[in-house]
Design goal:
Elements lengths: L4 E3 L2 E3 L1 E8 L10 H17 L3 E7 L3 E8 L5 H19 L1 H5 L14 E4 L5 H9 L3
Antiparallel strand pairs: 1-2, 3-5, 3-6, 4-5
Helix pairs in contact: 1-2
Length: 134
């Protein structure tokens, strides 16, 4: 179980499950090298913004992350940084390979993403806690 973080007068634990999917569900992450490069690029950009990657793994056409954020960065900003940074650098390294898949634009990820919070307590426990206040 993760521990609460403290900063100034704030106490928080912001954890998210994020899934990014390759455009058109192309199986681009089947390549071990490309997959490892995506992971390394993800670590680099998120580390610069104090986002912790707790877990990360790729499948053939998508990647799963468990992220821990500070309150000073929104999840939408973290996703935007992640998608734009990895796309730019992957295209620099794999231009020939990717241009066979995407001939009109330099894209890699779908426009959307899946995100959900990862809680430390169940709905029932939280409901009971809230109801027992005051």
């Amino acid at each position: 179980m993760s521990k609460w973080k403290t900063k100034n007068r704030h106490k928080y634990l912001l954890q998210y499950h994020l899934i990014l999917v390759c455009k058109y569900r192309k199986k681009l992450l089947s390549s071990n090298q490309l997959s490892e490069d995506i992971k390394e690029l993800s670590r680099k950009i998120l580390e610069k913004h104090d986002v912790i990657i707790k877990y990360m793994e790729t499948d053939k056409d998508h990647i799963h992350y468990m992220l821990e954020l500070n309150p000073n960065i929104s999840i939408s900003k973290a996703v935007k940084l992640l998608k734009s940074y990895t796309t730019f650098h992957i295209w620099r390294k794999y231009y020939r390979f990717l241009s066979k898949h995407f001939w009109k634009e330099k894209t890699f990820w779908t426009d959307g993403y899946f995100i959900c919070t990862v809680g430390n307590v169940s709905d029932k426990m939280l409901k009971e806690h809230i109801e027992n206040q005051g």
